[in-house]
Amino acid sequence: MKFTTIVAAVSALMGTGVLAVPTSGNKPPALANVYTSCVKPKTVALTFDDGPYIYTKEISDTLLKNGAKGTFFVNGNTWTGKCIYEDNGARVKYLYQRGHQIASHLWNHTHAPELTAVELTENMVKVEKAIQRITGAVTAFIRPPYGEYNDLFRELAHKRKQSLVNWDFDARDWDTANVTPEQTKAWYKEVLDKNPKNLLPLNHEVYESTAKDVLPYVIGLLKAKGYRMVTVAECLGLPPYLKVGKPKHPDSSWVC
């Protein structure tokens, strides 16, 4: 017999009423942490969304050549038409093997608050499974597409032991119809001229101008000002992965 039933029965016998008895069902769900800025001083966590894509390797090489590491929030089935499993996951594997951080951006680049719990869970699980197959690592971080999330998203992320990461500076490289690379570079310079303690910028690896023009320029600014370019996990002082194991061998299920 449940405790609440016993209380109700005893109260009836005593001629008193029971207004409310708290139960575990009244407890609000735990929600994942949301980070929008770094905590380590003099660090910048350059993040790149929406890949993997054809510029993945070039971005990685540019970062490494300058002693930098990046964080790549990847989709499974990207809006550019690329699949995370393409060439047996070669692009994601390339990043991971060179010390960059790999994190979730959901399977599809969709508006998360419009999804049901079942749809959200499927999007989370599929891309996490792909990342683990390719790298052997289970990601500890997730970024919702468009930066959009609700309490359901945070609840499901918490159940998966993940933290959310958005940004404190939007480079707006995604707004190609209205923003030029020169404007993006000017905005970077403007914010860095204020000498912030740290920075967590949003960039996208799917634009040629980001890979070939903006990124080299921004790296030059950051180096001149003495910032360390690190992963999100390092700038937060947290582990990047929930666990790390061996990658899987590709098979016929590696498809989008």
Characterize this entry briefly.
The protein is α/β, with parallel strands linked by helices. The chain has helices at residues 3-14, 56-65, 86-97, 117-135, 151-159, 181-192, 208-224, 232-236; strands at 34-35, 43-44, 47-51, 71-74, 101-104, 137-139, 141-142, 163-165, 169-170, 198-199, 201-204, 228-229, 241-244. Helix 2 links the parallel strand 3 (47-51) and strand 4 (71-74).
Helical element count?
A: 8
Residue share in β-strands: 15-25%
Based on helices, strands and strand pairing, what is the structural class? alpha/beta
Give the averaged pLDDT, no decimals.
Answer: 92
Tell me the Rg in angstroms: 22 Å
Count the E strands: 13
Characterize the biggest β-sheet.
5 strands, parallel
Order of helices and strands: HEEEHEHEHEEHEEHEEHEHE
Distance between the termini: 49 Å
The helix content, as a percent range, equals 25-40%
Read across the widest sheet, the strand sequence of neighbours is 5-4-3-11-9
> What sort of overall outline do the alpha carbons produce when their principal axes are compared?
globular
Low-confidence stretches: 1-23
Fold and architecture overview:
The protein has 256 residues and is α/β, with parallel strands linked by helices. The chain is 38% helix and 15% strand. The protein contains eight helices and 13 strands. A five-stranded parallel beta sheet has the order 5-4-3-11-9. It has a three-stranded parallel beta sheet with strand order 1-8-7, with helices on one face. Helix 3 (86-97) links the parallel strand 4 and strand 5. Helix 2 (56-65) runs parallel beside helix 7, helix 3 packs across helix 4 (117-135) and helix 4 crosses helix 5 (151-159). It starts with a helix and ends in a 12-residue tail after the last strand. The model is unreliable at 1-23 (pLDDT under 50).
